[in-house]
Known about the structure:
The structure is a single chain. The chain is an alpha+beta fold. The strands form three sheets. Strands 3-4-2-1-15-14-10 form a seven-stranded mixed beta sheet. Strands 5-6-7-8-13-9 form a six-stranded mixed beta sheet. The protein is built from five helices and 15 strands. The model has no long low-confidence stretch (mean pLDDT about 95). The protein has helices spanning about 15-30, 70-80, 160-170, 195-200, 205-210; strands spanning about 1-5, 35-45, 85-95, 100-110, 110-120, 135-140, 145-150, 180-185, 205, 210-215, 220, 235, 240-245, 250-255, 270-274. The radius of gyration is 17 Å and the shape is globular. Helix 1 (about 15-30) packs across helix 2 (about 70-80). Strand 3 and strand 4 (about 100-110) form a beta hairpin.
Amino acid sequence: MKLLTLNTHSLIGADGEARLASLSEGLAEEAPDVAALQEVSQSIAAPLWRGAIPKSFHACGASVPLRADNAAARLVQALAERGLSYHWLWLPVKVGYDRYDEGLAILSQAPPADIRAFPVSRCDDYRNWRRRMALGVRPEGSETWFYCLHMSWWQDKEEPFSAQWERLCEGIADTPDCWLMGDMNNPAEVRGEGYDRILCSGFEDAFALAKHRNGAETVRGEIDGWHGRCTGRDRFRIDHIWCRPRRPVRSCRTAFNGTDRPPLSDHFGVIAEI
């Protein structure tokens, strides 16, 4: 089984077409069983999606309609043109930069048997950029759940990671067999904060478990939202794949990191093979 997570930092805008094409090419080559994508956006001002909504789309109960430039929908279309079919979920989470419906997406080669989405932030105002959600899927033929996450910083005074983690743990208490994938916004290099909190909750870091590792940091420099948060450091591993219970992980590596393929955002992707 191969898993992938990536914060896309949106796939629309001036260079959106090129980045979406690069992502679809990379995903077609890697063919992950499940891909968890964060900051997957559509323009609020874009026209509504024209024609029939793709049959591979599985609604998550959100009231925000699909629009013509929805990055998840267009990515799945591009993958289909390359011969790779995915079932997909897109959950709008918040208004981003006053112009996007920004959300989470999960692509799964197997159709979903069950889907869930729930808030992990105290804030539930769609127009507030601090709103956070969890999106999960259990594929057919499996008892394992896969969750896509984009969490807040440990130091956030209004929406601290610790409180969001408690809500997440409550929401997944009935799914002991699960994977957490996403932008955790908590560096593995910093002790006594979010990374250690996850470890103490019974989850295992796929990167630490892997027999073979390639590439540690997933961000370099002060990316959007990180200005002044960790002085003295400019490389962090904040994009993670976690499992519960422990699994044998063959390898874990970064992707779209400028070495294997051109970077697509201010984050590198992470790929784990189990």
